[in-house]
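Progress note, sequence design subtask.
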């Protein structure tokens, strides 16, 4: 997979070294994360707070950067903050506020504004037109570090056009926070288009972990 990512980066005239591959281990056991770590994986993504907290507790001895990439409820903000190094799915002021209130001491949490790239207002993410306002709010919360934006390409649209919209939102956010350089976009099926649009963080699951286990 890393060779495919590197090739896509070269085709986009980008340095593969500026792209972070996050391995998504949803529903897989903590033992898989340990095996991946032995192979050099250092960035791991989880969609559910309970699973994130459980794996972090079981793997405290590993040097892993944990990325929370799922939809977050405000009442889970404290638990998410205790376990995650970065939260990619901040999509409303109330969630940003809850994550900020959960800060302990002077620690700073990396966060991204999740942008809804679909026409469905019920999907996770802030509307593109409101992303800048949310970013401005995050910048008022000293325990949060705004890193950039995150988006998921819709199933009924070519990924390239969706990621172009995300790139435009990212450019607008960087106008108010030049350090917010992350673009979290691209999964197993559309990482090539994401890289071409400037993605810095890819969220790759099945291409590395194989099929999700039966939760039976």
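Output:
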């Amino acid at each position: 997979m890393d060779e495919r990512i590197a090739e896509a980066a070269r085709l986009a005239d980008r340095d593969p070294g500026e792209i972070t591959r996050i391995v998504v281990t949803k529903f897989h056991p903590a033992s898989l994360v340990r095996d991946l770590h032995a192979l050099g994986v250092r960035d791991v993504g989880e969609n559910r707070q309970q699973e994130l907290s459980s794996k972090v507790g079981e793997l405290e001895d590993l040097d892993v950067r944990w990325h929370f990439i799922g939809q977050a409820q405000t009442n889970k903000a404290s638990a998410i903050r205790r376990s995650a190094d970065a939260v990619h799915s901040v999509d409303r002021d109330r969630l940003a506020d809850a994550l900020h209130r959960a800060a302990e001491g002077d620690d700073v949490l990396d966060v991204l504004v999740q942008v809804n790239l679909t026409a469905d207002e019920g999907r996770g993410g802030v509307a593109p037109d409101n992303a800048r306002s949310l970013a401005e709010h995050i910048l008022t919360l000293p325990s949060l570090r705004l890193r950039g934006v995150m988006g998921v390409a819709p199933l009924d649209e070519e990924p390239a056009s969706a990621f172009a919209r995300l790139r435009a939102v990212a450019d607008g956010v960087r106008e108010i926070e030049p350090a917010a350089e992350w673009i979290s976009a691209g999964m197993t099926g559309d990482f090539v288009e994401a890289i071409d649009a400037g993605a810095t963080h890819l969220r790759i699951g099945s291409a590395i972990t194989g099929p999700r286990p039966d939760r039976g």
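The longest strand covers residues 144-151. Work on this subtask will continue into the next period as scheduled.
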